[in-house]
Amino acid sequence: MRRKIYQQLLAWKKDRKGNVALLIEGARRIGKSYIIEEFAKNEYDSYILVDFSKVNPMVMEFFTLYSDDLNSLFTNLELYFRKKLIPRTRKDGEAHSLIIFDEVQFCPRARASIKHLVADHRYDYIETGSLISIKKNVKDIMLPSEEHAIEMFPMDFEEFLWAVGDEMMMPYIRAQFDKQQPMGAFHRRAMDYFRQYLIVGGMPQAIKKYVETHDFNKVDEIKRDILTLYRNDIRKYADNQETKVTAIYDEIPGQLQRRERRFRLSDLKEDARMRDYSQAFFWLADAKIVNCCYNSTEPSIGLKLNEERTTLKCYMGDTGLLISHAFDERGIVSEQLYQKLMFGKLEVNEGMLVENVVAQMLRAAGHKLYFFSKYSQIAEERMEVDFLITKATITSRHNISPIEVKSGKSYTLTSLRKCIAKYGNQLSTPYLLHDKDVVKSDDIVYLPLYMTPLL
């Protein structure tokens, strides 16, 4: 499937010229291995893919036995994988061969060897993995400074449109967004696509199955297999945190169903404190299973400076997975429930799904996730805004835009208007995301949900 990250791979190959390895972090089953192997096939004369999640332990030993003898390391890799590596020559400086360390977290010694491999400069190197920062996976190794790290996410809305065969819709959406003009007759079609994306999610296997069958039950089976994989990963790799990680993971749908969406630790354990669960949240975030959204106590430049890490929302990294995770009473989400979601007839729970997909889209667009919550005994001072995002340019005002997300036909904007009234002189454009077309008022821009990736 066509992925935007391919262009980043091309830029890395062209600009870095083998002076750094590329490290791609992302959740399991988002298509890291597939796109890297496609890149290797298309852009190099030869490549070796070492998948440390299933390779013979003998291969892992190569990186211990031959850490100071790269000639022997390369010879053994060539013999084992039956692939010939072609060294870079001084004449053209172009890399002819690529070595891929897939799921490199399972072999820390291979990651530690990157410093010497890059210095050797014979080949290009790409690493992929999840749980890259977990203590177990970096213990006793020196992390290489010769890495350029990028994040990979589930397929975004535009990639979903490509997969279903529509290459024209997103350019039109982008053009209308830039002009802040309504979509008109095409709004309904764009919303239909958006609802399909919300239901199927961004996991490539699920999208592929949907394109092939348009059978939501078959799609749900794929998503449940991925959820089972995640649960098994928690049991195997959570290192004395599995009970807490599992408790958070199981509680996510229930917490998002709450009106304010904030994760209430007391629902896990009466006397639970964030200091006891912070590592469990970190594990889930590092595995890219969840997107954590932290409270910023002031909507001003430097949201991280005002970050309150004890107050957070915990969204699933993929909304399609959230649906299968939330509605699992009978082991599979029924076709009838999917139909209700498709036509916007599911009143209960829809708000949490829409807010989750907005969080997913904002993360894929490169935003860190923050919300704004201020408690006060004075009603005019009390407010909670769903998201705060940082705009790319700074003008005489601050570069923070408040965002409210609404899924129903009737809603109020009390908190957003309070925020504008108090901080309006320093805010960038406030947005309301809803299921209707573009509307521009004096102080708020109303955008359809499918325009979220353009913010």
What would you say this structure looks like, in words?
This protein has 455 residues and is α/β, with parallel strands linked by helices. It contains 18 helices and 13 strands. It has two domains: 5-151, Rossmann fold, CATH 3.40.50; 157-454, no CATH class. The strands form two sheets. Strands 7-6-8-9-10-11-13-12 form an eight-stranded mixed β-sheet. A five-stranded parallel β-sheet has the order 2-3-4-1-5, sandwiched between helices. It is globular and about 70 Å long.
What's the average pLDDT?
Answer: 91
Instruction: Tell me the number of structural domains.
Output: 2
Gross morphology is globular
Main beta sheet: strand number and arrangement?
8 strands, mixed
Strand order of the largest sheet: 7-6-8-9-10-11-13-12
Q: How large is the count of helical segments? A: 18
Summarize the structure.
The protein has 455 residues and is of the alpha/beta class.
Could you give the topology of this structure?
Blueprint: H1 5-16, E1 21-25, H2 32-43, E2 46-51, H3 57-65, H4 70-81, E3 97-102, H5 108-112, H6 114-120, E4 124-129, H7 135-138, E5 147-151, H8 157-163, H9 169-179, H10 187-200, H11 204-213, H12 216-237, H13 242-257, H14 274-286, E6 290-296, E7 307-316, H15 319-326, H16 335-342, H17 350-364, E8 370-374, E9 383-390, E10 400-405, H18 414-423, E11 431-434, E12 439-440, E13 445-448
Parallel strand pairs: 1-4, 1-5, 2-3, 3-4, 6-8, 10-11, 11-13
Antiparallel strand pairs: 6-7, 8-9, 9-10, 12-13
Helix pairs in contact: 1-2, 3-4, 10-15, 11-12, 12-13, 12-15, 13-14
